[in-house]
Each structure stands twice: as structure tokens, then as C-alpha cells.
Amino acid sequence: MILLIAAPASAATTVGNFVTRANALRANPLTALTSPDFTVLRDEARAASAQLKAERDARRAAGKPPIACVPDGQSIGITDMLDGLAALPPAQQRLPLKDGYAAVLAKRFPCH
């Protein structure tokens, strides 16, 4: 569903914090992969993705509509995800990363 993204961000990394830290890595691509923050951000992204998948499964089991309708075989790239997170309004920048991911996915893959 989502391509990169999040590891167990303990008490929930906010969208704004994640974007700020990711942008610092994007500004220095030659050293990004060796930065200690790369692993932390990758893990936070994986955790958020896992939480979002669990929520999707729970919604499906409860007969609730999905938050986003990602076509089979499609996903969103990390660059597009980061750009989507950065474009969220200030109020959504304070949301947990998982909820920011959900907002980006819902905008990119709306359910009709």
C-alpha cells in the first residue's frame, strides 16, 4: 500500500517533525544514507505504514469504508509521500505520522 515508511515511532512522531527531519536528509543526499537519523526515520515510516495497514484491516473487518482506495499494484513513492506530507495544512502537521499518511493517501487515491 505505501512504499517506504515508518517504524515504531513511540508516542507518535508528528507529521511536521518527520518532514523537518526528512528534509534535512534530502538536503544532503550524499550523506543521507549514513546518517543515524535515516534509520530512525525509516523505522518510523515503517511503523506508521504497519499501523495504517492494521487500521485498514480493522475497518474492513468491521464493514467500514476504507480511508483510501489504492488500486492493486500501485503505491506512492517516498518522494511523493514526503511532498504530500509537507503540503498538509498546519493543523495536520501536528497529527501523528500515521494519520498524515492516511490523509496523503486519501487525497491521492480517493474512494469514489
Overall description:
The two termini are 18 Å apart. The protein is mainly α. Helix 3 crosses helix 6. It has helices at residues 15-27, 29-32, 36-61, 78-86, 90-93, 97-108. The model is unreliable at 1-10 (pLDDT under 50). The chain is built from six helices and no strands. The protein is 61% helix and 0% strand. The longest helix is centred in the middle third of the chain and has 26 residues, at 36-61.
List the helices and strands and how they pair.
Layout (H helix, E strand, L loop, with lengths): L14 H13 L1 H4 L3 H26 L16 H9 L3 H4 L3 H12 L4
Helix pairs in contact: 3-6
Q: Strand share of the residues?
A: under 5%
Radius of gyration: 14 Å
The low-pLDDT segments are 1-10
How would you name the oligomeric state of the polypeptide chains in this document? single chain
Secondary-structure element series: HHHHHH
Query: Helix tally?
Result: 6
Q: Work out the helicity level.
A: 55-70%
Using DSSP, what is the number of strands? Answer: 0
Estimated structural class = mainly alpha
How many angstroms separate the termini?
18 Å
| Major beta-sheet overview | none
Average pLDDT value? 89
Shape: elongated
Properties at a glance:
about 110 residues, single chain, 6 helices, disordered N terminus, mainly alpha, elongated, about 0% strand
